[in-house]
Specification:
It contains eight helices and twelve strands. By secondary structure, the protein is an alpha/beta fold. The strands form three sheets. It has a five-stranded parallel beta sheet with strand order 2-1-3-4-5, with helices on both faces. It has a five-stranded mixed beta sheet with strand order 7-9-10-12-11, covered by helices on one side. It has a two-stranded antiparallel sheet with strand order 6-8. The structure holds adenosine-5'-diphosphate and magnesium ion. Its EC number is 2.7.13.3.
């Protein structure tokens, strides 16, 4: 039992035909009849050999001799119909029997079965086979077109999703711009309002010649109040400039030898006025020093302290300066206030992100602080349980990583 007797070199797009006949001369004759450009003929001398070939190729048509020893053409056709891979393969029986013989094959009903009677009429054979090869070519073309259409469709879906994402981002940006404008105006309005009121009160007194009002103490208090309002406006503008620098990758630091404990005490002293009666305790291990941009680190601490004061519900705030176990310097600000819910703990470090009830502010403090700390090769961590205070921990390597370039 030998499989394919013909030398078969199928081209990639050739339509494959299968001829099964136990007699070599029949195989040759039929092959010669159906052979043409774009068609590749495989032959098998038995049903078993044919099943082998069916596993290897995708055929457009099988021409089966009905009378064969061992496995008849009908039996082979049953097997072909029974396998899902080949169930739809068109089958043409070749028989010398009387007309109607093929009707005894049960699979005849499904329409993909035809019969050729011996002696074969070359013309009829060729045109019948051509119908099937054309059918096969067309359905293959359709399948390819379907695949192409599906791919194009998938690409389109992808583009659509991208478009949607861009549109969402744009809308978010527009919304943020509007919110930002109203937020900034509001933030500037407050200190400006206080200064404007102060200014007109002073002007009125001066206009009335009420110079007695301007005692040294009052002048000092006025100057202090003015300084506070100016500081808050300057802070706001600086925060916006820093944010813009960060967002454009233009943040730079100027590290120099710095004692972290000293720096913490200075910042705490500067902010003491803000704290009023709220206890602020600074505990610093001696000699926690490194190479840092003192102004930036001071700003980080000032941000953390301002937050601790704002959210600390009037309870004591503690600042700690020490060495962490891994050799990094550690600066921690601990309050006993409302804390930060787990769901907010990542978000509040993003630009313009604020908690639910956060009072005034642009939501830039933690964003800027984190970037300042990152620029030093350090990290900022938050430990908090809602309702039980928050501890912001800054960890700094003793010197910042070398900047490329
Ligand atoms: N110590 C803290 N306790 C509770 N919540 C805090 C604390 N620090 C920061 N937050 C939350 O993080 C948000 C972002 O803080 P921040 O970036 O400093 O912006 P802002 O102070 O302008 O709101 C705050 O609005 C607040 O909800
Ligand atoms: Mg803040």
């Amino acid at each position: 039992m030998t499989a394919s007797a013909m030398p078969v070199m199928p081209g990639a797009d050739d339509v494959q035909l299968l001829i099964v006949d136990d007699l070599a001369e029949n195989r040759l004759a039929l092959s010669a009849l159906v052979q043409e450009e774009g068609v590749c003929v495989h032959t098998a001398a038995s049903g078993e050999a044919a099943l082998d070939l069916l596993l290897q190729h995708e055929f457009a048509l099988a021409l089966l001799d009905v009378q064969m020893p061992e496995m008849s053409g009908f039996e082979l056709a049953e097997l072909i119909r029974g396998s899902s891979r080949t169930a739809h393969l068109p089958i043409v029986f070749v028989t010398a029997s009387d007309r109607g013989a093929a009707c005894s094959f049960r699979g005849y009903d499904n329409g993909a079965v035809d019969v050729l009677y011996k002696p074969l009429d070359p013309q009829a054979v060729r045109s019948k086979v051509r119908v099937f090869t054309e059918l096969h070519r067309n359905s293959r073309l359709l399948r390819r077109q379907l695949v192409a259409v599906e791919a194009a469709h998938a690409r389109q879906e992808l583009l659509l999703a991208e478009l949607q994402a861009t549109q969402d981002a744009l809308q978010r940006a527009l919304r943020m711009r509007d919110e930002f404008m109203s937020l900034v105006s509001h933030e500037l309005r407050t200190p400006l309002g206080v200064m404007t009121l102060d200014h007109s009160a002073r002007r009125d007194r001066l206009a009335r010649g009420d110079l007695a009002h301007f005692t040294p103490e009052r002048l000092q208090a006025m100057a202090a109040r003015d300084a506070r309002q100016l500081r808050s406006m300057t802070r706001l503008i600086d925060d916006m400039l820093d944010t813009s620098r960060i967002q454009h990758g233009r943040l730079s630091i100027a590290p120099r030898p710095t004692d972290l404990g000293e720096l913490a005490r200075h910042v705490a002293d500067d902010l003491a006025g803000l704290f009023g009666t709220v206890p602020l305790d600074v505990q610093a291990t001696d000699g926690v020093a490194g190479c840092w941009d003192d102004a930036r680190i001071a700003q980080v601490l000032a941000n953390l302290l301002a937050n601790a004061l704002r959210h600390g519900q009037g309870r004591p705030v503690a600042v700690q300066v020490s060495w962490a176990a891994d050799g990094r310097a550690r600066l921690a600000v601990q309050d006993q206030g409302e804390g930060v819910p787990a769901a907010d703990q990542q978000r509040i470090f993003e630009a313009f992100e604020r908690g639910a009830a956060s009072g005034p502010g642009l939501g830039l403090g933690l964003f800027i602080s984190r970037h300042f700390v990152h620029a030093h090769g350090g990290e900022i961590r938050l430990h908090s349980t809602a309702g039980q205070g928050a501890c912001f921990e800054v960890l700094l390597p003793t010197s910042p990583p070398a900047v490329a370039g």
